[in-house]
Amino acid sequence: MKNSLIAIGLTGALLSTSSLAVDLIGHTKSKSMVSVVSEVSGMVESADFETGSIVSVGSVLAEIKAQDFELEISKQKANLALVKADLTIKQSLYNRYNELRNKNSLSQNELDIAAADFDAAKAAVALAQIELQKAQLDLGSTRVSAEIDGYIVNRSVEDGAWVNQGDLLYQVVNIDVLNVRLLASEYDIGELRIGQEVEVWAEANPDHKVRSQIKRIGVEIDPATFAYPVEVEISNPDHLFKPGMSIHASTTLTGSLTHSNNQS
C-alpha cells in the first residue's frame, strides 16, 4: 500500500511538472536594420555590393560622380574670396568714416550707412563660408559608407543610375543579436513571465540550442494569429540563426547547450 502511494505521488509530481512546461513556435527577426539613402543627387558611378554581401563599418557601398561637387567647391571658394575682398574695402571705409566723424567732418547719416555696409559685408562672408562648408559636405556625401557591420539584405541602386537626395540605395542588417517573436495561446500565457528562461532552437538546426530569457509579453491578442506575442532576444555571434527562420522554444531546460545566452 505504501509503495502504491509513493508511485501515485511520483506520477502526480511528474504530471504536474509536465503541465508547467510550455512549448512555443515563432520566427526570428532582425533587430538592427539600417536603410542607406543618398544624401545628394547625382549619377551613381559604382555600387559594388550585392544582396548577401558582408560589409563592415566604413565600407564604401556606393560612389556618386563627384565632378559637379568639386566644381561647386571651387565656385564657393572663389565667391568667398570675393566677399572677403569686399569686406576689407567696407571695413576700411567704415574706419575712415569713423575718424572723420570724430573730427566732425562727416555726418552721422553717412557713418551709419558705412556701418550698415560693413555689417552686410560681414554677413556675406559668413554666408559664403556656410555655402562652402555645405559644398564640402556634399562632396563627402558622394562616398556612401556603411554605418554598421552586417549583411546587405536589399540593393535598390544600379551603376550609372541617377539618384535623388533621399533615395534608398541599400539596406544593411546586423544579426549579432536577433529578436525572436513567439506565439503563446491563452492557455499558455499564464505559465509565462518576463525574465523566465527558455531554450530556443531553429527548425533547420534543432541540435543548436540557445538559452535566453523572455524580454516582453504582449497583453493583447494578435487578431491575425489569435495568440499573444512573446519576445526573446538571442545572441548570435556565429550567425547560425538567420532572420525569418522558424523557431521553437521551450521552458523545459536541458543540461547541455551549444551556446548559453543568459541575459539580465
From TrEMBL:
Alphabetically sorted, this entry's keywords are:
Coiled coil, Signal
UniProt keyword annotation of Ribonucleoprotein present: no
Name of the featured protein: Efflux RND transporter periplasmic adaptor subunit
Looking at the record, the residues that make up the CusB-like beta-barrel domain are 185-250
Q: Which family does it belong to?
A: Belongs to the membrane fusion protein (MFP) (TC 8.A.1) family.
What species is given as this protein's source?
Photobacterium chitinilyticum
Pfam family of this protein, just one?
Beta-barrel_RND_2
UniProt-listed NCBIfam families: RND_mfp
Q: Which residues form a coiled coil?
A: 90-117
Q: Ranges for the CzcB-like barrel-sandwich hybrid domain? A: 33-173
Q: Which residues form the signal peptide?
A: 1-21
Q: What are the record's GO terms for cellular component?
A: efflux pump complex
**Record-level Gene Ontology MF annotations:** efflux transmembrane transporter activity
